[in-house]
Each structure stands twice: as C-alpha cells, then as structure tokens.
Write a structure and sequence with these properties.
- The protein is mainly beta and 173 residues long.
- It has no helices and eleven strands.
- Strands 1, 4, 7, 8, 9 and 11 form a six-stranded antiparallel β-sheet that branches. Strands 2, 3, 5, 6 and 10 form a five-stranded antiparallel β-sheet that branches.
- β7 and β8 form a beta hairpin.
- The termini are close together.
C-alpha cells in the first residue's frame, strides 16, 4: 500500500552558516531534539516495505546546498540517541546505539528553483524497512523519524522552511 507523509522544519530565526555535517532543526536547544516524525508511514504499518520517494521543498529561491535525510524506524515508546543532544547548526554523528533502527539516508543534491521556492525530488530510492515489532525488538506499531543534515556549506535565511514528503510502499498484513 502506498503511503505519503509530510513534515515541515522551520529553522530558527538566525542566518548562522551551516557546515558539512551540521543538523538542520527547528531549535538550537540541545535537549530532547528527537527528529521529525513522519505520521501515517510507520504508525499504521504491519510489516515490511520500501521508502520509494523523497520530495523536499524550501521557501528560498535559488537554494543549492546538498542535504541528507537520515531515516529511522521506531516502535512506540522507542527513541533514538543520534541527534537528540544536538541542536540546529551543530555537528551530528550517527551512533552505533541506533544501528538496529537506522533505515539509511537519502541525499538531496539536484535542485529546481522557481520564483518563490526550490525543490528536489529523489524517486530512485528503495530503502528497505521492517517494523520494530517484526524485528522482535518491541511489541506494537512503529513510526518513522527523520534527521536533516547539511552536506554542503550554506548560509540559510532566518526561519527558512523545509517541507519533506516521504512516500513508502508498505506491505500490509
């Protein structure tokens, strides 16, 4: 079954330049910053599937920086260690503690600019996932969490928005 979910990240009210490996987030706070939750992808899944498409829009025309979206699948109540103590514009590391939850990443590097926005669409991905319940880690339904990372140096605009849409092909049953 095809499922689509969208999240929006509105970054802080500053224009501090990003460097390679910095997290793009809604807050500069380094506490409890758990990532963006993609509702309706993991919450209603009962098994395996693939992430098949990622579409990212930003409200800034002429945006060209490379970005990477890291994806995790979590069971209800589970958390990730990666990035949870890192605020916006701070370096992140993908932690070994999250290895069983990590699905992979999608690089967004090709951009189309319009009068009021810029977007990138990656529809060649097939990132396989399995729900945490099927992996035997915990009973219950799961969810998808994404962490956005700068893969190039760029100066953002204050309150710049990133709208991320993920499409999955989940096998129900």
């Amino acid at each position: 079954m095809i499922r689509v979910a969208t999240v929006t990240i509105t970054r802080p009210n500053d224009a501090t330049p990003y460097t390679i490996g910095d997290r793009i987030s809604t807050t500069t706070s380094a506490t409890g910053n758990t990532g963006s939750v993609f509702l309706s992808l993991g919450e209603t899944m009962y098994g395996n599937g693939y992430v098949t498409k990622c579409k990212l829009f930003t409200n800034v025309s002429g945006f060209t920086a490379a970005l990477r979206l890291h994806l995790y699948t979590l069971a209800s109540g589970q958390t990730i260690a990666t990035g949870t103590t890192v605020g916006d514009n701070s370096a992140i590391s993908i932690l070994y503690a999250d290895a069983s939850k990590y699905i992979g990443f999608i690089d967004l590097t090709t951009w189309v600019s319009t009068a009021g926005s810029t977007f990138s669409i990656v529809d060649t991905e097939r990132l396989c996932f399995q729900s945490a319940a099927l992996r035997g880690e915990i009973a219950g339904l799961g969810t998808f969490v994404g962490i956005l990372e700068a893969r190039g140096v760029f100066t953002p605009t204050a309150n710049q928005q990133f709208q991320i849409e993920l499409t999955t092909d989940a096998y129900e049953g």
